[in-house]
UniProtKB/TrEMBL annotation:
This is Signal-regulatory protein beta-1. It comes from Columba livia. InterPro entries: Ig-like_CS_Receptor, Ig-like_dom, Ig-like_dom_sf, Ig-like_fold, Ig/MHC_CS, Ig_C1-set, Ig_sub, Ig_sub2. Residues 56-141, 168-260, 273-370 form the Ig-like domain. Pfam families: C1-set, V-set. Residues 1-23 form the signal peptide. PROSITE patterns: IG_LIKE, IG_MHC.
Length: 421
């Protein structure tokens, strides 16, 4: 072989060797390795700012480090290029490595994405509308170089970390399934969800007064990158709570003003009625006289009651129930009137007013009809009720009767003694 041919062959072999061995010289690395398709990732990390050396004029810039955007808003991702752009596509990728997702390239269809400057060769800034918590992640603007074996990464931006801030949903307060009376303690729960970041504060108020509560429970939400919270408070009910509101107040970095969830305590409260039967006239009741039995049903909530009258334990059909009237405190009152003709066979009859409220045991009050015999008319006072509206229980009346009898007795004795004398 001619020495010239040998020299040429040697030179060719050397060249091949240099191409195969990327670590040989720093100056060679960008030129030789980074256009190689074998290990784009490792090479890229070994050779930062790679593209600049491919074409000293080419530079890709991704200026945003971190971007925070509210859910539902439009996210802008900036990417600009300068210098002579070698052939090959530019893409936006979310994530790096095997889990990357192409967010935008020129060839695909990306309905939520628009370019800031359509068709520009230098500005590859994109807008992504209606971002959701699951859009959180790191986004890379990437310039690929074209080669026969496919596109390789030429240069990649430094990445933009996007966090999507999501507002909590309107808080909802739920109460117990059943009503409870004043003095009882009941749990109430406030829930809200879909928020990001995790920090959230919950306050409970009864009207304007703060109630102490445990910190809320925060759990991962149904959507990725979102959280749900639940907070429980125990409230001891009072009779005056009918007009009270329980408020769950949620504050989150995404909110200008806190969000309130309200619960009217009237939905959890039951105030059982006080029942009292009043007879009119109470005494004396003469045969065939009309007697009004009025059943006073007082201070109850909610406003539904059923009132029935019974005579000697048997239900009566005739009755007259007034409309429930609301008191200023929000409690209800009503009356039921029963007109009875005091016939002789009703002597000793027991009239009962039975009130059923909110599926509770009935509350009753009763009165006994006593009829004065014709012969004693105008003398005896016979009527009584069992709830304190009993004239016989009046000490003044007893005193009057005693005084009257005493005087009469005294007079009789006096007359008798005088007669004998
Ligand atoms: C991002 O790009 C838009 C549109 O090109 C521009 O208005 C904005 O100033 C850029 N922001 C940054 C941080 O470069
Ligand atoms: C993106 O993911 C695909 C496979 O899912 C992989 O082939 C490709 O190398 C990845 N690209 C980058 C730049 O990580
Ligand atoms: C009471 O009324 C009944 C029938 O209405 C009558 O038969 C009876 O005589 C009356 N009794 C008196 C004492 O008025
Ligand atoms: C009984 O009630 C009726 C109807 O409200 C009334 O007309 C009548 O005067 C009342 N009777 C008595 C004794 O109060
Ligand atoms: C109930 O009482 C009112 C007056 O208090 C009267 O107008 C009405 O007719 C009565 N209804 C019945 C069914 O007795
Ligand atoms: C109810 O009972 C009393 C005493 O048991 C009796 O005197 C009265 O007649 C009874 N009333 C009726 C309507 O049966
Ligand atoms: C009603 O009953 C009482 C005792 O229960 C009795 O003293 C009175 O005489 C009775 N009246 C009539 C009208 O029968």
């Amino acid at each position: 072989m001619a020495p010239v041919t040998q020299a040429l062959l040697f030179a060719f072999l050397m060249l091949l060797l240099l191409r195969r061995a990327p670590g040989l010289g720093v100056w060679q690395c960008p030129v030789l390795c980074c256009s190689s398709r074998d290990q784009p990732q490792t090479l890229l990390s070994l050779c930062p700012g790679v593209g600049a050396q491919v074409d000293p004029g080419f530079q890709l810039r991704q200026p945003q480090d971190k971007v925070s955007v509210a859910a539902g808003e439009t996210l802008t991702l900036n990417c600009t290029m300068s210098g002579v752009s070698p052939p090959g596509p530019v893409k936006w990728l979310k994530g790096w490595g095997s889990r990357n997702v192409t967010v935008y390239d020129l060839t695909g269809s990306f309905p939520r994405v628009t370019r800031a400057v359509d068709g520009s060769n230098t500005d590859f800034t994109i807008h992504i509308r209606d971002v959701q918590p699951e859009d959180s992640g790191t986004y890379y603007c990437v310039k690929f170089s074209k080669s026969l074996s496919g596109d390789g990464v030429l240069q990649r931006g430094s990445g933009t970390e996007v966090s999507v801030q999501a507002k909590p949903s309107a808080p909802v307060v739920s109460g117990p399934d059943r009503r409870a009376g004043p003095g009882q303690s009941l749990p109430f729960t406030c829930t809200s969800g879909g928020f990001f970041p995790k920090d959230i504060s919950v306050k409970w108020l009864k009207d304007k007064a703060l109630i102490t509560s445990q910190p809320p429970q925060i759990n991962p939400g149904q959507m990725k990158f979102s959280f749900d919270m639940s907070s429980t408070v125990t409230v001891t009910l009072q009779e005056g709570d009918i007009r009270s509101q329980l408020i769950c107040r949620v504050q989150h970095p995404t909110l200008e003003d806190p969000l309130d969830g309200t619960y009217p305590l009237s939905r959890a409260l039951r105030v059982s009625p006080r029942v009292q039967v009043v007879m009119d006239p109470s005494s004396p009741v003469k045969v065939n006289q009309t007697v009004n039995f009025t059943c006073h049903v007082k201070r109850f909530y909610p406003g539904d009651v059923t009132v029935t009258w019974l005579e000697n334990g048997t239900e009566l059909k005739v009755q007259n129930v007034s409309r429930a009237v609301e008191t200023p405190q929000g409690l209800f009152e009503l009356r039921s009137l029963l007109e009875v003709q005091a016939t002789e066979e009703k002597n000793g009859s027991v009239f009962t007013c039975r009130v059923v409220h909110d599926a509770q045991d009935p509350v009753t009050s009763m009165a006994t009809l006593q009829i004065v015999p014709l012969s004693k008319e105008g003398q005896g006072d016979w009527s009584q009720t069992d709830n304190g509206v009993n004239l016989l229980a009046s000490p003044v009346l007893w005193l009057g009767i005693l005084l009257e009898k005493g005087l009469l007795g005294g007079l009789l004795i006096f007359l008798f003694k005088r007669g004998r004398a």
